[in-house]
Amino acid sequence: MKAPSSPLLPAKSRCLRTFLLALGASCIVFLPFIIVDQGYFLYYGDFNVQQIPFYQMCHDAIREGNIFWSWTTDLGANFISSYSFYNLGSPFFWLTLPFPSEVVPYLMAPLLMLKTALAATTSYAYIARFVRNKDYALIGGLLYAFSGFTTYNIFFNHFHEPIVFFPLLLIGLEEYMTNGRRGVFAAAVFVNCFVNYFFFVGQVVFVIIYWFFRLLGKDWTINLKKFLWLAFEAILGVAMSAVLLIPSVLTVLANPRTSQSFQGHSALVYSWPQRYGAILECFFFPPDIPARPNFFPGAEAKWASLGAWLPLFSMCGVFSFMSAKRGHWLKRILITLFIMAMVPIFNSAFFAFNSSYYARWFYMLVLMMALATMMSLEDREVNYMVGFKITAGITFVITILIAFLPAEVEGREAQKYGLMEYPVRFWIYVAIAFVSLFLLWWLLRKFRRQPRQFATAATAAVLCISVVYSVYFIALGKVDLSETHDFIIPYALNGGEDVDLPDEDNYRIDFTDGRNLPYDNQAMFWQRPSIQAFHSVVPASIMEFYPTVGVQRDVASRPEREDYLLRPFLSVRYLFDREPMSPNDDDYDYYTYVDWQNGYYVYENKNFIPMGFCYDSFITRSEYDAMTEQERQRVLLHAAVVEDYAAQKYERTMTHYDTEEWLDTSDQAIAEDCADRREYSCETFETDNTGFTATITLPEDSEGRLLFFSVPWEEGWSAQVNGVDAVIEKTNVGFMAVWCPPGESTIRFNYMTPGLPLGLMITGVSFAVFLLYFFGMRALSRRKARRIAAVQPEEEILRHTNEDEAIETYYLKDLSLMFPAKPREDLPPGEQIHPLGDRGSHPPPDNDQNT
């Protein structure tokens, strides 16, 4: 008896079709904006001021071999650790390297299109393992690729890499546990860990949950040997990523943001009640754009990546599946994940139990939702109308409550109705949600007995809805195009080509936009050192220093104009202001107008001190801590701050400044202190990839001086003075200094990324082990197959193979079983549709066609 041929496309063809459909839809989404933006794709917020300059700066640094220390990231930063989270692990970033620097900003949209298409493809490959009708797997892949989470995170371009590669992690696990394939899981672990270590932490938590419930579902079996080999592959995959992982972990562990923990009831209940509503709402409506929440503006989740809506299907398939499948492993996973989303400490498990709220693990939940949605379509036990009614009901209730509850009440009379922040946007979102539900209902009714036509129509509907809501979502972020066309394109993306400043390395620049606020990362577009930086991963010493002088340092360094005393201390020479300075400005007398360049008024700091200057007096860290923040800013221009343990070392050669003595804060006194620091400053200061070289001349009749550099202190630094190894003193809270003798001196600071040599060695050894393991296991499998073939008749093997292929290609013939009015006893046994997981419970129908 011969198995039936499938009317569906071959697996490879359908995989390609998934890729091309997602790519085509993405092109339709982005193309109008590319045209409007003159070939670029510019959005708003983080996308404009982080994603684009980070891509271009890292691209240029790698092409030039500058992979150790970045002089254009904040006050200086470990290049590998600072950009492994954003760029360095992404294969999409590496695709930009063959292109010249000026082309990189044009590649942002094409790369987003490619990521979306690949996300659809990898999720298709995963979902296809659980559905017989591979057209449904195609739809599931599109749902994942165009979900609310994916669209929301266009704002965070680098979040798309985990979305793309996460399904491979589950495929690798399935291959190992179900088919016994060795090496696939290890490779998937490596890819996901290498791509983004931050998201990998959450993926580990999810995989443990997934593995546990799959095991409880009795589809898998485990013994000690099998478990140990699985653990070996997991460890091997992590070890292969050590070249990026170890330097990154060392930097992250030193970052105070990672140590934020829960206290009291905050671990069990969110402090902002609206957050519960925002979490619930994100499953039923397209996502609010980042920073501008609409449904629940008081949820304090502006950048949390709250988005999980599935185009067309919403939660219909999920509720249908959960209502019908008691004890199913997928239902248990979904329930567990929904509970974790609602409990702060469980939610934080995906982020190493950090108390800051994020929903950036929802892409994993979305994949499970897409899987449940597709599995429910072809399962005879599932009545799709149950989930449809629940979804429509919840969507309606949320709409009514947000739209018509009184927002302002004066006395007993409501003054304003509606809780939404932006009414027009709210009603458009409501319309998209309800049109999707109506269209789904119509498709289910019209094609209930025509599953192939349903799959085709549903695919088209998902693509249309995805395009419409994605275009609207992006357009909301681009409402104000003046910034894009009047400033970013002519003055940022031009790389500062019209800026004419001295070609020296011994100074930094500063920015304001005319409102005493910095324009984030403008210097990074020009690739010039600056004290303004919007970057989350910087040396811990920067995080330590800024709060001591009254400057908040969480995700950015933004010293305000009123903190003028930090400018000479940090060697700021030029200020770029979008508007001309006024005599009423507090710092007006400290600057001299130079020129108008590249869209800015340029001013020179009268009290500029070059990089590398000397102190002849000091105070201890304890004395510094006892001062006010303003006093600290002032004393840094007068005396060095040394750690308490080093005080005795400098008592003999430097003056211990008496902090009880009043320190003059007049403009004249400030200018005199700056002049004193400038008198004995470095004649030359030249930076390179591995550090910097400076020269200085000190009086012959002195005992030498403490030479300070406002370069962040890190473990990877070493120093030499006149070719002799020198001790680097941690000075002025978070910076470096060395002792220089009288006369002429050459100072050399060298930097090596902490953990990089070790990580490189571990990665190399691990890859060698992986190759031996992978090819060794393949050889063993082939030898085993030959032994089996020698004792088992060929026709018996062929019969089993044909039966397996028939089951794999079996096509669901009657979609009307989703609406069972009565049991379908009229179908012959070969055409009965069985629940997934019971694939062995029914043989393929007899048929004379060839396989």
From TrEMBL:
It comes from the Bacteria. It holds the Pfam family YfhO. InterPro entries: Uncharacterised_YfhO. Residues 842-851 have a biased composition (Pro residues). Residues 822-851 are annotated as: Disordered. Keywords: Membrane, Transmembrane, Transmembrane helix. Signal peptide: none annotated. The chain crosses the membrane at residues 20-43, 103-127, 136-155, 184-215, 227-250, 303-321, 333-353, 359-377, 384-406, 426-444, 456-475, 755-776. PANTHER family: INTEGRAL MEMBRANE PROTEIN, INTEGRAL MEMBRANE PROTEIN-RELATED. This is YfhO family protein. It comes from Solibaculum mannosilyticum.
